[in-house]
Amino acid sequence: MSAQPSAQVPAVIPPVPSARASLAEDKSKQKKFHGFIAGVFSGVTKLIVGHPFDTIKVRMQTSAPGQFNGPLHCFLETIKKEGPRALYKGATPPLIGWAFMDSVMLGSLTHYKLLLQGGDPNVKLSYFWSGVAGVGAGVTVSFVAAPIEHVKARLQVQYDAKSKLYSGPIDCARQLVRNNGIPGLWKGLWATIWFRSWFFMWWSSYEFYADQMRLRTNMSESAINFWAGGLGANTFWLFSFPCDVVKNKIMTQPDVKNPPFPTIVSCFKHVYRTDGLKGFYRGFLPCLLRAFPTNACALTSFDLTMRWLRKMDD
Questions:
Q1: Cα Rg of the chain, angstroms
Q2: Distance in angstroms (rounded) separating the CA atoms of residues 104 and 107
Q3: How many other CB atoms are there within 10 angstroms of residue 143's CB atom?
Q4: What is the DSSP-derived secondary structure letter of residue 279?
Q5: Which of 61, 72, 107, 200 would bridge 36 by S-S if both were Cys, CB 3.0 to 4.6 A apart?
Q6: Could you give the CA distance from residue 106 to residue 295 in angstroms, rounded to a whole number?
Q7: Whether the predicted pLDDT of 60 surpasses 80
Q8: Cα torsion at 124, 128, 131, 132 (round to 10°)?
Q9: Whose CA is closest to 267, among 190, 182, 167, 153?
Q10: DSSP letter assigned to residue 302
Q11: At what angle do helices 264-275 and 189-196 cross, to 10 degrees?
């Protein structure tokens, strides 16, 4: 009896990813960095449009009661005594910093939204979860923003030769490190996190305004981003401004061993005791005037860069 030939067992060949699948994966990885790249352009736009307003805001927030009659008086006194260039005092840190900060903020916002969307950017988030993504971005960027804003604020409140302690941003950073160690650059970090946690209001309201404009108008996406970005920024500042006042007072207080405001609570009590509730909104008008055009232009710049990057990928 002859032996039966054994059945041939087909070899198992592991699947080889197609070129199309590999390309899709590469594009997915690239898109994760789009927000960071576009954020750089947003930050530069924000500096050019908004820094003069920011200088007036910080001076109004940190000046002694009665030093300025209002934002216009502050503006005119600054021009009269120090010249137009004074409006851009402290601009060097944010020139580099805002580009980096917006890169981190908008890049991390894009990343957190993608996480909440389960990896699918086409999933529509509710206003609440858009706000949660904003909080995540705000906390993340605070660690980058605190030292940059600390140096910027100290330079902005140098009014004349008598009050001038620093020759520039590098000298300011050097003195802070010499007196307090490297952690001294991060003085006001918790106040910065508290302030930027209000990004919840910015990004939840931004989505609300954008949805209403899509529903009720025929505006282009770029126009919607401009108007929704500006309105969202104003909504954010309406809620967060008292935190910003406290943050800037902590950052610009004398750099001594026993500072006047060792904690957020002590600074909060001081503002209320010396100036009442209105003290928490000193400098609000220049801030509001700055917020809309600055952030509207910055988000439009961000959106246009994101679109260009997507076209480059296609």
A1: 25
A2: 5
A3: 13
A4: G
A5: 107
A6: 12
A7: yes
A8: -100
A9: 190
A10: H
A11: 70
Cβ-based neighbours of 306, under 8 Å, separated by 6 or more: 34, 35, 38
Residues 39-54 as b/e (b if ≥16 CB within 10 A, e otherwise) read: bbbbbbbbbebbbbbb
Is the pLDDT score of 46 beyond 90?
A: no
Q: Is the pLDDT of residue 37 over 80?
A: no
Q: What are phi and psi of 119, to 5 degrees?
A: 90, -5
> First CA to last CA across the chain, in angstroms?
67
CB of 13 within 8 A of CB of 277?
A: no
Residues whose CB is less than 8 angstroms from the CB of residue 222 and which lie 6 or more positions away in sequence, other chains included: 300, 303, 304
The tokens of 107 are what? Answer: 């890049």
**What's the rounded Cα separation, in Å, for the pair 46 and 214?**
25
Alpha-carbon distance 114 to 247, whole Å?
A: 31
d(Cα 202, Cα 130) in Å, to the nearest integer? Answer: 9
CA dihedral 82, 86, 92, 94 (to 10 degrees): 150
- For the ranges 41-55, 90-104, 135-149, the maximum mean pLDDT occurs at 135-149
Residue written as token pair 């054994």? 6
Concatenate the DSSP letters of all residues of 49-95 into one string: HHHHHHHHHHHHHHSPTTS-SSHHHHHHHHHHHH-GGGGGTT-HHHH
Which tokens is 30 given?
A: 């690239």
